[in-house]
Amino acid sequence: MRLYAGMSKEFIDETIHNRIADLLKTAFESHYRRQPSPSEVQSWRNSLRAVSQVFQYAGLTDHGVILEYELPVTSMRLDCLVCGAGVARDSASIIELKQWERCEDSEGEHVVTWVGGGHREVLHPSAQVDRYRQQLSDNHSAFYEEPDPIALQSCAYLHNYTPVPNDTLFLPKFDSFLLESPIYTADKVDALASALSMAMIRGDGKRVLDRIERGTQKPSKKLLNEVARVIKGEHAFVLLDDQLVAYDMILAAARKAGTVDTKEVFIIHGGPGTGKSAIAINLMADLSRAGKNAQYATGSRTFTGTLRKILGPRTAQQFRYFNNYGEAAENQVDVLICDEAHRIRATSANQYTARSRRSGKPQLQELLDAGRVPVFFIDDKQTVRPGEVGSSPYIREVAEANGHTVREYTLNIQFRCAGSENFINWVDNTLDLERTASTLWNTADAAFDFRIVESPFALEALIQDRAREKYTARLTGGFCWPWSKHLADDGSLKSDVIIDEFKRPWNARPEMTRLPKGVPKAVYWPYDPNGIGQIGCIYTAQGFEFDYVGIIWGLDLVYDPDKPGWVGNRDNSYDTVVKRSGDKFMDLVKHTYRVLLTRGMKGCYVYFMDKNTERFVRSRLENKPFNP
Asked: Integer distance in angstroms from the first to the last C-alpha of the chain?
């Protein structure tokens, strides 16, 4: 989808006569059924006038122009693409347009600039447009199909920006991006005009534009091989028993998809540590190697962000979110792997979605429609927010109502908690989530180290000891303290988690910018070694596993010996969404602690703020003296 396509001569004419922004506005309203924001229209008016002047100056009058081109399988749009014939082959250039005037340095590939009414952390323009170039060249046939793919370049034009000595934009750490996708500032019009005219010196833009318009959007074999190579290089998961059965059946369905009358939908059940993600990752690698467009979707920003970080920016486009499929074409993805399907929401709309864009279509229906073979990995006892509606009965009901064949498999092998299925069952029994045979936990079991400690300081010390021994270890807690939106006055994370003299910060919020050096972004907290310095809540810990996990059990869920039974205290919760969940509150908080208790591969340590709750849990331990 694009909002405008035509020849450069007409584009220049529309710009000179101040019509281009209105043309884009009309096309936007027609496609998206809503109005663009005034700031976006103003941006079109200013930036397209600037790039039009460059085209005039460079003599680009016989070239194709595409504006606001939606990248394959994303909602991101290229600002401008210009195309024509080069000396030896057809060529196209992506131009990212910015109205910036100044920027400041930030962590990694980011800078801070004034955008959207405030100072925000954003990708360096060269890093941003280079990813656009890679995305288009990997997923649009005109740019990769032999024997004569269109050569694709990229650059950024900051038409209001005048650099200063030692300017942030040109720091040495950005050299690799600047080499691939150079930045042209307000004083570099000659250089930009020369680069564009040399790349497309023979014009003939109509023919090249037609090639792009006729091209198809699908992943290249090169990209899929890269996904397979990177995953297999990073992960060496061996599948066993029921894991292998589910894996083989999904591969078989992928091979015959499109040749049978009904769509096959897979529901793979499994508790914590039963290898759901191991199957999903193996499927991604092997399906990609076979040339299948496999995509991996979750509802977790932290989990998906970490996967993208590990696997690298090029392969990241195959790892997406549940809410990315609202505008996907029918059967656009060969195999759509939905991990942690219990986090599927009622719809993909959120508080920031314009009313005109709220289609009302269920998110589950979007996922079922987008995948030729939809696969849902699910644990019905991991739902921790009221807006999460994913459940195996719901998926089964909707899939069957669509006329699809549903195939279900249950994973039983336990890889987490030192392979102890008994520990998972003991947690479920203790939290009164399920009646199991494991009513007592034998703390003499040397395979899994479970301990109750007397203070948050002792808990922290144990976790830090394990980290010094080169194990992965994290401190987590119930959502019983506020989670500050801003840094402290000295620029550090605020110490929100306060228990008497113990004062520690939560991990950084996802929207935070200008973080202190060494503090990882929220999405990298489980993966970055520096994450051990902060406490993670359920929303950053869910979906991950660590060698050792420490848990601060707050006052939102306590055991009342006089009742007797569990009591949910919403007054002690700072999870505003869960607090508004009505009679679901206690079940959701129980699920929260179940998730936290089952994050450890080798051990789990717990500090209880409520002594009655501690006594109750201790009473369900064997081979350890009872402390009254």
From this structure: 68
Q: What pLDDT digit, counting tens, does each position of 79-102 carry?
A: 999 999 999 999 999 999 999 999
Q: Are residues 84 and 201 in the same domain?
A: yes
List b or e across 530-565, with b for residues whose CB sees 16 or more CB atoms inside 10 angstroms: ebbbbbbbbbbbbbbbbbbbbbbbbebbbbeeeeee
pLDDT tens per residue across span 550-571: 999 999 999 999 988 999 999 9
Give the list of residues 6+ apart from residue 625 with CB closer than 8 angstroms, or none: none
- Per the structure block, which two tokens stand in for 232? 């297999």
- DSSP annotation of 318: G
- Matching residue, tokens 């998906």: 304
Confidence (pTM): 0.64
Q: How far apart are CA 358 and CA 354, in angstroms?
A: 7
Assess whether pLDDT exceeds 80 at residue 357: no
8 A C-beta contact, residue 205 and residue 10: no
- Closest residue by Cα to residue 500 from 552, 464, 568: 552
Residue 302 within a domain: yes
DSSP character for 164?
-
- Look up tokens 């196209």; give the residue: 92
Q: Which among 425, 407, 413, 372 is positioned nearest to 276, based on CA atoms?
A: 413
CA 250 from centroid of its chain's CA atoms: 24
The tokens for 535 are 């406490």
Number of folded domains in the chain?
3
Range of the domain at 172: 2-214
